């Protein structure tokens, strides 16, 4: 009679669901892509998530199917639902996490704030969009992008010629997404979780720092912030230069959390999207805080998300526990923070001369308050192989300790 | 190159090491007694821990061997060490957790405070001890007792006749442990962890509440306490009557933690035992706080312990993470609490009409701040099948929420 959750995909998000499942006494089973993945400990099956028979056989062993990623094809998702399998999030919601043009269209229908956008099928259409939006555009492939891949800032349509050529050669056809280059002061992320029966729980909005399109640091909650006049932004690609640090940006703004108004607006945005799209499980909304104060939706993820890893060590209910509760339609947990501040720093690449744990002697001795998370992946330049979380009362101190701990794994 | 920890025994203590191992990216392997135990997810082997070949084969797959329990026979432990296996805690230390007479003798040699005691081989010797100690004694079997089993309060030697008869029939012979009936006001527990290289980390001393010899509740840190004049104590068996509650005992003492002096004396006692006995890994020292203020050692456990379960949700470093770090001789983590108070309430027996998770709908809805831990064991009267932890700023509130959450599983 033990509740059984099936997770499709064996990456670190599935891995980090395992401790939450163990604590709650849930049976967690993972359909992994290959042997030896991050979530191998719970990988009861290894197989192709694009193969309906494989996924159906896996689904028959569990009470609910959920995901480590958003790549399961729609025909497979819909066949599961037709056969009565509980799938959370469901196909309609996932469609908007799989296709950025569909996501922009749905959010626009719902009247939610997004950057100006258009689906462009030709270079001419893209050039028109560029000309109408200040001489630049962010161009994105509708499908398959992540961590900055499939995203390009262009000032002339020919800079996307290769992508149009690829589209023309793709039997499915389609379009590219063109978006205005938002003049944003920083990036935020709003995490919420929604049960199939409708209840929603939200964590306080966090600030995320990207570098080359990859999340490097998360501050929870988002601190108060007044954009510096000389700050460089390059919307849609990276918030700060590779040489920059959040400390330099924040300067005198570290001491207090963001205004209640910002927190409330971000939460309402997260709730509106979760309800509007019928998301079940955890939803992460990546948000631009524009210089004019507007909050604009950047990307969506319908699963636990890098911006919520802080919650494992910093929140009464982690995003992984909450996701399991939500997809099982169990009551959601309290999202209060354990401490005034939590900072999460990603370990990107990892040491190139050995596994992460070869640095434990030095790292754990130097930073006894740091919570080290090691995804069990081989180090490789740029790869997310782990993260560090530190919690505490003063943001400058917490930032310093978290960065110092992560630096041991460079 | 991943660090590999082998745990002998597949119970809930091994189970609760798994999340800590996953977070730190350690490879955890469990030698379980049978299929389907609490730690089944990591049970790479099922076999008899008393069989040297089984244990040796298991040990060859890991970097260090540690334990879910203290029952591995000394010849097996010593054979492992002779073959160069890292075993933590080691055989000499474990001897004192396996045999209560040896424990009392070693602590006495070290000059550490214990109740008056004697090893008694006959009823005459026991009667002499009773007569010399106020007309009562706590009699314990030297080996094999737990959760109140193998412990009896007697006022005449014939009340232990059956145990003497059993001893006489045991080829190994031996003695019973007789101890004075300590006039204690409450029971405490001091948790420490020690690395093979010597470093020790201590958590603040906690108060434990036993009922019929079984831990039912832990308050971390131990609150300030002035014994009530009319309090009933029955040393060594239970702190309060089955109908009693800690709230009734504490009355006006809930608001503040115990004095710095008490905390310091308890920590020094824990450190002295860990060093004196050469314990590696987590050591739990069960302590009587006598009415005259003395701290007397009751029992020792050389592994994570029920009194430290609060640390999973209430401490920067949990006892399970710390145990893994300690047995691998890695630097120990910070033991600061997340909140002023943590209360852990055991789920004993569990619902007799279904599994624990059949109550999740009601329990999680009513107590969104409670952290539920379900050991995946079948409910059975009196069995430890899970626990609940709640943290917060006010002890009365935290106690109320933790008890209310646990009550859903009665």
**Overall pLDDT metric of chain A:** 91
Largest interface: A-B, 45 and 45 residues
- Quaternary: homodimer
CATH-assigned fold name of the largest domain in chain A: D-amino Acid Aminotransferase, Chain A, domain 1
Q: Which range best describes the helical content of chain A: under 10%, 10-25%, 25-40%, 40-55%, 55-70% or over 70%?
A: 25-40%
General shape of chain A: globular
Order of helices and strands of chain A: EHEEHEHHHEHEEHEEEEEHHEEHHEHEEH
Reported for the largest beta sheet of chain A, the result is:
9 strands, antiparallel
**What's the total count of β strands of chain A?**
17
- The CATH architecture classification of the largest domain in chain A is 2-Layer Sandwich
Spatial extent as radius of gyration of chain A: 21 Å
Structural class assignment of chain A: alpha+beta
CATH class of the largest domain in chain A: Alpha Beta
Portion of residues in beta strands of chain A equals 15-25%
Domains of chain A, number: 3
Number of helices of chain A: 13
Distance between the termini of chain A: 45 Å
Q: CATH homologous superfamily of the largest domain in chain A - what is it?
A: ATP-grasp fold, B domain
Uncertain stretches of 5 or more adjacent residues of chain A:
230-252
